[in-house]
Automatic annotation (TrEMBL):
This is Phosphonopyruvate decarboxylase. The keyword Isomerase does not apply. It comes from Thermomonospora echinospora. It comes from the Bacteria. Signal peptide: none annotated. Keywords: Decarboxylase, Lyase, Pyruvate, Thiamine pyrophosphate.
Amino acid sequence: MIDPVECCRRLKLHGCTYFSGVPCSYFASLLQALDLDPGMRYVEAANEGSALATAAGVALAGGRPVVVLQNSGLGNLVNPLTSLSAVFDLPALLLVSWRGCPDEPADEPQHRIMGAATPRLLRLLQVPYWLAPPDTEKFNDVLEAAVQTMLRSQRPVALLFRRGTFSPVEPAGVPPAVGGFTRRDAVAVITRKLTDRDALVATTGMISRELFRQRDRPANFYMQGSMGHAGAIGLGLALKSPGRRVVVVDGDGAAIMHLGSLSVIGSTMPPNLVHIILDNAVYESTGGQRTSAARTDFSAVGRACGYRQAHQCSDAAALAAVLDGAAHSAGPTLIHVKITPDSGTKPARVATELLPREVKERFRKALREDIEA
């Protein structure tokens, strides 16, 4: 395995001290090592395209930037990669986790297509890439080759990382908060307030898994992948089903990834949409890395974007009262729920019991049967 602390030291020797990205669990120990190194600066990007744009700014100022991303985020990266970095010859070192690698045991369903396509996609985009070996000394040689190629070409290059490439880092500093109002508590309130006619969209990750654990129902659409698009899916549902309340349960990291959707929802003003953002200020699914939500007031953003109702709450009683009010008020309604990270047992993945197509088919059937009834 690669020692993440040694990896950081080597990157620093190459002049790579500015990082931006969106975390993946494959990089949990590397990101922890970056956080512990005062000589490194890591910017929590809204999405992978924004991370590369931040890297472009660092490169314009003469730096040697690094972008950290999961391969599923290559889709968000394509536009700035082809129309910014490649056009202006702006170098960047891309550290890409290879989820869904065909040579490894099956990953989650959303990684299958991109896992198989990742090497071909990088070649198509004319991005030289190397597979990172799970050995610190061998990795140093590969890193040297990648950095030298980046400097000669003044273009982005990529390193691909398989599962288990990095060794763990010993935890340091203050342990995560325990107790308080958690995701589990918030979901319990939300599920208690759902009616049989409500259609629910749950963002990918722990929120879908928690809803599946607490109250699985055919009218729940559990996202698996496509991070950041729960609000837009809910908007489409609300517009096509004006007689039905649509409840979107989002996360802070996911909402930030495509925050522009809030403006579209506010502009379109579907009266039957309730958009709940559970905000623990971390990416809990990938190891608890910080999001940029600590200084973001989603309720204020919702009001500025045109939501008819916008609220903030941080306990069960307040959330229940806001949901009761939303049931009798025209939307769109945004509810910003401040929660603490949940250190309890992780819920099972939805895919362990339901394939994505089964989620879709039973959701459609639930909507159709309700209309026919």
